[in-house]
Every structure is written in C-alpha cells, then in structure tokens.
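pinning this so it doesn't scroll away 📌
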Amino acid sequence: RRNDPAVEWRAFDLDASTPALVPGRGAFDAVVACEVIEHVESPRRFLENARALAAPGGRLVLTTQSGRVHATERRVGHRRHFTVQEMTELLVAAGWRPERVWNEGFPFHDASKALANLWPSAVLKAFGEKPYTLFQKSVCAVLAVLFAFNSRRRGAQLYALARNPPAPGA
C-alpha cells in the first residue's frame, strides 16, 4: 500500500459458505489468489466467491501446486493439489473462462520440494519459525537464480489465468 497508494487492496474469506463476504461484489478488475486454493475446504466455492468479486471481464490470477501432497505441504495445511485438467474443469464449473492453465518448475522448483521432503521437520523449523539467517537468505538467493532456468511447460507449480465472462448482452 505504501508503494502504490492508488491500488485498492482488500482481503476476503473466499472459503466462506455464504457470500456475505462481498461488499465489493463485481467491483474488482483482478482477483489474485497465490498459494491459497490448496488450503481451502471447497475449491469450487472459493472460485465462485472469487468470481463474485470480479467485475465482468475481470481477471483471476491463481497459483497453486500440482502433484502429490508431501509431508511438508500437509504440515502447512495443504488439502489437495491439482492437475492442469482438474484446475481447468474447476474454473469452468465456477463460471470462469480459463485463458491459460499451465505448469512450471522443472527441474529446480521440483528438486527443492523433493529435498525439503527428505527432512520435513528440520526444513519447516529452519525456514518457517524464525527470522532468516545468512544461511537461509543464501539458500533462497541460490534458489531464485536456479528457478529462472526452470521449464515454462512442466513442473509441480501450477498457474492459471481466467476471465469473468461479461454479462449476456454486455
């Protein structure tokens, strides 16, 4: 908010069973859900509520995980992961028009997940409980460089772009 005061940022509980959450119903040009849908009880309801926030023609930007739910992910609350086909079908069922759904992250993102799952307790403690030391910061910097060389076509990281269709006759 400090960096761009012209942007209006809001947070909503999109997993709520009643869409009373929507004081901005249909008002937003974009709804961003990064690393959230894998945690919710009802992914379809989540996407339906997200769509209720989007203006006609508004966009959804979503990131999540694909593949098996490993120990580290279960420990941080992941309920499930999605394939490209599952996410595409889920978006359509929730009323979105998928523009692109794809995977990325092979080999370095996928390898970092595999390594983390060799020692889930130690990794979660080292990277989730305290401020980062020089070692943790260095690991993250190395991973950021390696991730730039990941495949843009396959891997365990899933991305989706979708549009809220305009109202009929609009």
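📌 and the second one:
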Amino acid sequence: MKHLLESCFVINPLKEHTEIKEQVLQLIDEQELFETLYDPTDGVNITKCDWGTSRWDRNRQWVGALMKHLGPHLQDTTKELGYVEFTLQEMWYQQYEQSSGHGWHVHGQNWTNVYFLELPEGSPKTQFINPFNQTTIREFEVKEGDVLTFPSYVIHRAPINRGSERKTIISWNMDTELKPGAYDNERH
C-alpha cells in the first residue's frame, strides 16, 4: 500500500491585516470572558483564549471587527477550493506566551483555518504530522497576516513558543457546499 500525505492546503494573506491588527488585538485584550487551557496529558498549555464562548457568543466585538474583512477573504478561498459557499461554525482566538503551546489534535468540520494575527520573528508555526508514520512533520512557510486553510481531519499542533514574545492566532472551523451538478461531466 502506498501512503501519501497530500491534501488541500491554502495560504492566503488577509489583505487588510496591517489595517486591522491593532484594533483586533485591542478588542481581544478588552474582552472580559476568556480562559487559560492547561492539560499536560494532551499537551495543551494555551495562555489565553475564548474557545469556551466560540459557539454561543457570536457578538464578541473582535469577531465583528474581523468579519468585515474576513468574509470576502473566505468567499474567495471557498471558491479557490472549488466550493460554492461556506458556513462558519465557530471562531476563537488563542494566545501563546513563552512556554505555551497546543499538542497534536484534529477538528470536526470540513475545514480548519488559522489566521496568524501576531507572529513575531522566530515564533513557531502550525505543524502537521504524517498519519502513516507518525514521525514526518510538515510546516508551511507562513507569515503574520496569512490565513492557512486545511482539512479539519489533518493532525496538527501549535509547537511550544520558546520565544519571549506573544503569538496570537485566530482559528475557525467551516463547512463548505458544492454547487449542484458542478462536476458532472456527462452531457445529456
């Protein structure tokens, strides 16, 4: 049996990143509901996030400020992947101070996205592991302002932040739908 680690990975910069970065970070800092996640058995040590409110609170101010610009970006990415529309399931931020990270995990929808809102020089980037040998790790060359989109079933992690500067990502899951008949090759 031949095992391949080929999948759909898309890296697209968010055009308005420079324009919105400070506002979104400020709104995240001002948000009252947040949590610290720590579970050493799963390799989870996230300094600050709002995962717990990601499904039920769609009125968080930072989400509103970001979605004005992210909506068109997601429409373009969805079309680039060959789909007609997307449905956003949940969205949350994660901040990683020195010595924090997020161990190997997967998500439940069609697509997972990571927007690198704050990625200082030398910060760890999202990594992916080959499920067939569980040793080969792949990392994409992303930079601050990039959105990395990948299938939610792909095993990935946020390696431990060894630097002294904070890293902030915004992640979301989304489902996509095909346009009926879009790939039919038969003509009647």
